Request: fold
Amino acid sequence: MSDLNKLTIENTISGLKNGDFSSEEVTKACLEQINSHDKKLNAFVTVTEKEALEAAKRADELINEKGSSAWDEQPLLGVPYACKDNYSTRGIKTTASSNVLKDYIPPFDAAVVARLNNAGAILLGKTNMDAFAHGSTTETSDFFSTKNPWDKKRSPGGSSGGSAAAVAANMCIFATGSETAGSIRGPASWCGVTGLKPTYGRVSRYGVAAMASSTDSPGPITKTALDSALVLKVIAGKDKNDATTATEKVKNYFKEAKNFSLEGVKIGKPKSYFEIELEPGVKQRVEESLKVFEELGAEIVEIDLIDPKYSIAVYTILQRSEVSSNLARLDGIRYGNDRTHFGFEAKKRMMLGAYALSAGYYDAYYAKAQKVRTLLIEDLKKAFEKVDLIVGPTMPCVAMELGESEKSAMFGELMDVLNEQSSIAGITGISIPCGESEDLPVGIMLMADMFNEEKVIGAAYQYQNKTDHHYKIHKLEL
Amino acid sequence: MLYFNKMAKEKISKQQVLHIAHLCNLTLSEKEIEKLSEMLTDTVDYIKILDELDTKDTPETYQVTGKTNVFQNKDEENTTLSQKEALSNARNVIKGMFSTKGVFDR
Reply:
């Protein structure tokens, strides 16, 4: 069987169950894709070829021994994945794409990595990102820029750009990303793949290099919405090492998403989200997709949400303040290089954060932003009294050319304008491909209230069931 | 660029930039000082739009899921790293401890 690297998680597992191919074959197919194309794309910082092949052989032994019941205990057994390089991986270099952590080898696994390992998933390597996740194009990586598999002159988005590019280029079956505001959904949108930002606290942050601790949400980047349900089930849940993880029950997201019906579901369309400067092609694709949702039985309802320009300001203050505090711990004494190794973007963010937190300015900026955060939360709460889901374009434009991001003081925050309110409020959202503009993918975003991941995945699944935009990555010429 | 207003900006001076850099324990090149003075000025200018919103009676939200005082369970295994593991990335180790720069003059 050829093109095993193009499989979804669902197909990989059913093929392994049927004995159509082995985990070693799938893993080799992904590694071959990486070896043939990553010199051009730069999606990976580290490839763990030897360890991956060993793990795949072990998975095949388990499958031979236990048969189909092997997946009862290990639901992702034999499925190769790529991991964003801000997740700690025991014994494997974890750099957060920064010179400060260039040679850092963590003595422990992040909670998500440990859960994926325990579930039998196979780590292929670590993916490039904006250094410390500071950016929306993967260009602030201290090592190199990742290229968009759709057009190598363009950015894959960020900060999880390496992961999104690796999924789009079929270098892995799925990948992990992390989102502070837009860092999963944005690159998923620009690379034509599916990105799920879970509710804050749904997935443990333990062992993920902290950016803004009050909004950081680890999550999956996949080829389909249903695949994100399979990963979420494994990585979600209370973790004793992250006090902010939620105790809410972890649902059977796959089953619930599959059973989700859009019949009678109200989807809110915020006027303010469509009134900002959107590329005409993006707006058009999203509007067309809304018709598909209507055909599937949903009702589109216009709603009012606060102008997203305020979310940009709140997010900029909170994120940079938390960045300045989180990165203060990097002193080069216990691990990593000293502070002279920080790149310009990290310096810029820490400094604005320190300024906003300093005596005399704290109330005007940080405390004020936390108050407006309350307004943004109440605004969404009111909306969810009227509608089940909220929709918007994921990004205001299609993938930009490399080099554009350096021109503005707040490029990342401005690009992520439509993701910020949901991130600040901690609710869940998903981005799925909904067509192309200028031969580049456009993403549509669905958001739901806290702990309603099955709703956004379910609605996305229904849409993908009716459309084929998520298969376009099969035809990319790398 | 989206949203930046055209009103007179309150400039963040090079001197202020150096002060903040000192607070952050960062070293900057001459070019970075210049660029940061400009970029921080732009950013501070932008975030002032929050003043347009009335938050007189609005409380702050620091934690979105409403969790407070989450304690470790004493029955749980709470060991994280061994001493050897914790020291495994340190550049300078003396007698099983991290070696740091001196803080006080002798």
User: Anything to note?
Assistant: DSSP finds three helices and two strands in chain B. Residues 1-6 of chain B have pLDDT under 50 and may be disordered. Chain B touches chain A through 57 residues (CB under 8 Å). Helices of chain B lie at 14-23, 30-47, 83-87.
